[in-house]
Design goal:
Blueprint (H helix, E strand, L loop, with lengths): L2 E5 L2 E4 L4 E8 L8 E6 L6 E6 L6 E3 L7 E6 L4 E6 L8 E8 L14 E4 L3 E6 L1
Parallel strand pairs: 2-11
Antiparallel strand pairs: 1-3, 3-8, 4-5, 4-9, 5-6, 7-8, 9-10, 9-11
Length: about 130
């Protein structure tokens, strides 16, 4: 049974930083792509960042490029999202996801190649 447990969310002022963590279990972590999604109230889910199985390929949505960094530690079965220079528009529930295989997909799949999702952690950025 796959479990993805996010942590690290909270309330931060604009310009501040947070680091989200996602601890995975149930499958061999190093074999699968990972991703972070977010959903703000009244908005559709957005694919924020993705990382392939060995970390040598990453993706960021344009709105977070240069501010967010996705990384993974295959020895700890954990994926991270470092969020710097946070803006009020970054306020959302953030969800970790694990891929169907080694790769994430930016086009061609509305699930971006993800199969499992965590329950989310709330990030609130005040102005």
């Amino acid at each position: 049974q796959v479990q993805l447990v996010e942590s690290g969310g909270g309330l931060v002022q604009a310009g501040g930083s947070l680091r989200l963590s996602c601890a995975a279990s149930g499958r061999t972590f190093s074999m699968y792509a990972m991703g972070w999604f977010r959903q703000a109230p009244g908005k559709e889910r957005e694919f924020v960042a993705g990382i392939n199985w060995n970390g040598d390929s990453t993706y960021y949505v344009d709105s977070v490029k240069g501010r967010f960094t996705i990384s993974r530690d295959n020895g700890k079965n954990t994926v991270y999202l470092q969020m710097d220079n946070l803006k009020p528009e970054d306020t959302a529930d953030y969800y970790c996801a694990q891929g169907r295989n080694q790769y994430y997909y930016v086009i061609g799949r509305n699930d971006y190649g993800m199969l499992y999702w965590g329950k989310g952690t709330l990030v609130t950025v005040s102005s």
